[in-house]
Amino acid sequence: MGNFHKNLICSDPLSFFFDFFCFVIESFKCMFLIVGALPSFAFNNTKSFHFVNYSLNWTEAQSVCRHAYSDLATIENTADVIMLRSQISNNKAWIGLYEDLENDWRWSLNDSSFYGEGERTFRNWYSDQPNNLNGQEYCVELFTLGNSGRWSDEVCSLNLSFICYTTGRK
């Protein structure tokens, strides 16, 4: 793949790039993100949070986090909330909590061996949340407006900044 032709770059459906004459037109999507990482906060050297100041819907944000880090942020306790709300300047950002098909709230990181006692069930909802307004709110955003750190359910197709999570188990 030496780019012999200098400006000929083709992509196959599996996203491999080649430098040969392109005879077949394929559709593809390229995305470059500038990822701004929060300072790493090691609570026992097993995790750090990374704020991404780029707006994507929840599913796209999850994909980016899984590719570049471990997953969308899992917030396990009040200490995590306090740390995040003090570091994020945007008003709101996606976290990894979502409502599944059985109407249960689950974390995107679905490795039960990762969670300690009570960490999987920690919630920090605003009052009257989650409310599933119009039956369409299945994803969760963290609000930092007013330094609250509270959560609200939201329509998953909304484009927001997001928080990724790195674990020692990636």
TrEMBL record:
Q: Which organism is this entry from?
A: Gouania willdenowi (Blunt-snouted clingfish)
Name the InterPro entries on file. C-type_lectin-like, C-type_lectin-like/link_sf, C-type_lectin_CS, CTDL_fold
What PROSITE patterns does the entry give? Answer: C_TYPE_LECTIN_1, C_TYPE_LECTIN_2
Keywords associated with the record: Disulfide bond, Membrane, Transmembrane, Transmembrane helix
Show the stretches that span the lipid bilayer.
Answer: 16-38
Pfam families tied to this protein: Lectin_C (PF00059)
Q: Where is the C-type lectin domain?
A: 44-165
Name of protein: C-type lectin domain-containing protein
Q: Which PANTHER family match?
A: C-TYPE LECTIN DOMAIN FAMILY 20 MEMBER A-RELATED (PTHR45784), C-TYPE LECTIN DOMAIN FAMILY 4 MEMBER K-LIKE-RELATED (PTHR45784:SF3)
Is Thylakoid set as a keyword in this record? no
